[in-house]
Design goal:
By secondary structure, this protein is α+β, with helices and mostly antiparallel strands. Helix content is 54%, strand content 14%. Helix 4 packs antiparallel against helix 5, helix 4 crosses helix 7 and helix 5 crosses helix 6.
């Protein structure tokens, strides 16, 4: 075979090897969601690609057989085409044996480089950029290759399956999409500029509904505005004017004996019609949804859906009311700072290294703002106030501090044992390095008060 003929054969082999490289990477890198979308849009080739992805054994066997066969054949043809000419070229300066060795090595280097660059790297990078576009184009020729190499693929497939069983390895790919996969995709989309940071945070908040308890979004017991069944018209009107809400629990004697709730719209309707506001007859009182405080926000949403309500009273294991929650509270948790008035912000950033945080702020929100991956004993509390109580092992008092992971939490205000405001400060690097051994293992707790049972 002459040199021009050998070059033509090598070019054809490089093209064939490049085809197999594109076929391999295109199928492996194709996203099932994108292929499903293409199939739903009427592309039958995408549907066939999905079926091949489910059972890719024969497909990849043909690819590997083709790539290895072409590479071996390319080496044989290339060595026969270039080695004699290069040997003759080097014989001008070297003896026969060194010239032959140099000719063989340079021939090997040229052929190998051509296959690596043109048959491997270039086609694989090309197919990685748009795998779905290329996989639908190579399916038909690959089907013919599967038919032609059927006996060979049968042998290698069965041999491979036997090895998988012998080694106890999974033979199929796990195609399940987890919440972690989706969150990773949204984070990548945010970094690429496809999603806004706030949009990505909303998606992350949706997945947190299964892990956050209702206590993290509820209105605390001390802040609940409610009516007693025997309240007079004047008391009801004064309460509405002082604490305007859309829904009010109705209780018998105290807040722990809830008998229902009243909608503010019904009260306004009566007021506009000149009727007295009275709850004693029960005509305005609606049946209230009672949920335990250990339910997650996702479970509360399901309860709202089942009973067609958007308001619920939350009780603890002792049947004591701990708060109330509305559908708007849950949705505000999902939307984050996209909704809600600014005067109700629970976390206020003072400067680059300090924050003023309300004690009832959910600990998940605190961790997100401070960029903390975990908190100590995080299964024992729901709020920042709970974190301080667990770390101090008592009810915090004003000026008490807790240091954790280079952050200092200082109690600024306590009202009837309720932690109102906490100052969180990021410590300087020098201080952090000096405290690193202790901070890495446990929190550092400080108090300006001796242990006592003082009441405010």
């Amino acid at each position: 075979m002459s040199v021009p003929q050998s070059l033509l054969v090598i070019c054809l082999l490089i093209l064939l090897s490049a085809f197999f490289s594109i076929a391999e990477i295109a199928l492996a890198a194709s996203r099932r969601l994108r292929l499903r979308q293409m199939a739903d849009d009427g592309d039958d080739r995408a549907e066939r690609a999905l079926r091949v992805q489910e059972q890719p054994g024969e497909y990849f066997t043909v690819v590997q057989v083709g790539q290895n066969a072409v590479a071996i054949l390319g080496g044989i043809v290339g060595e026969g085409a270039f080695s004699p000419a290069l040997t003759q070229f080097f014989s001008v300066w070297f003896e026969a044996k060194p010239a032959s060795t140099l000719g063989f090595l340079l021939s090997f280097l040229l052929i190998t480089s051509a296959f690596i660059l043109l048959a491997d790297l270039l086609p694989k990078r090309l197919s990685m950029n748009e795998p779905e576009r290329y996989v639908v184009r190579v399916l038909v020729p690959m089907r013919w290759c599967v038919v032609v190499f059927k006996p060979i693929t049968w042998f290698y497939n069965h041999a491979t399956e036997a090895l998988f069983k012998l080694l106890g390895l999974p033979a199929t790919r796990d195609e399940r999409i987890t919440s972690e996969d989706i969150l990773a995709m949204t984070e990548a989309g945010t970094k690429a500029g496809v999603l806004a940071v706030r949009e990505q945070q909303v998606i992350a908040n949706v997945f947190e509904l299964d892990s956050r308890t209702v206590a993290s979004a509820m209105t605390q017991r001390d802040s609940v505005a409610y009516f007693l069944r025997d309240d007079s018209d004047a008391i009801i009107r004064a309460r509405i004017a002082e604490e305007p809400f859309s829904t009010y629990p109705v209780c018998d004697g105290d807040i722990d004996h809830v008998i229902g709730y009243v909608d503010a719209k019904d009260l306004f309707q009566r007021a506009l019609n000149g009727q007295p506001l009275s709850l004693s007859d029960g005509s305005l009182i609606r049946k209230v949804l009672i949920v335990p405080d250990r339910l997650t926000l996702a479970e509360v949403l399901e309860q709202f859906r089942l009973v067609h309500e958007d308001f619920a009273v939350i009780v603890n294991e002792y049947s004591l009311v701990v708060g109330v929650v509305t559908l708007n509270d849950v949705m505000s948790t999902v939307m984050g700072d996209l909704v809600g008035p600014s005067d109700e912000e629970q976390i206020i950033r003072r400067d680059e290294n300090s924050w003023l945080i309300d004690g009832i702020t959910p600990i998940e929100d605190v961790m997100r703002v401070l960029q903390l991956d975990d908190m100590p004993h995080d299964d024992e509390y729901e709020t920042l106030a709970g974190f301080l109580m667990v770390m101090l092992r008592r009810v915090p008092r004003r000026t008490d501090t807790v240091t954790w992971n280079h952050y200092k939490f200082e109690v600024l205000d306590v009202d009837s044992y309720r932690i109102d405001q906490v100052m969180v400060t990021r410590q300087q690097s020098v201080a952090a390095e000096s405290a690193a051994p202790a901070a890495a293992a446990a929190a550092k707790v400080q108090s300006t008060h001796p242990p006592s049972t003082d009441k405010k």
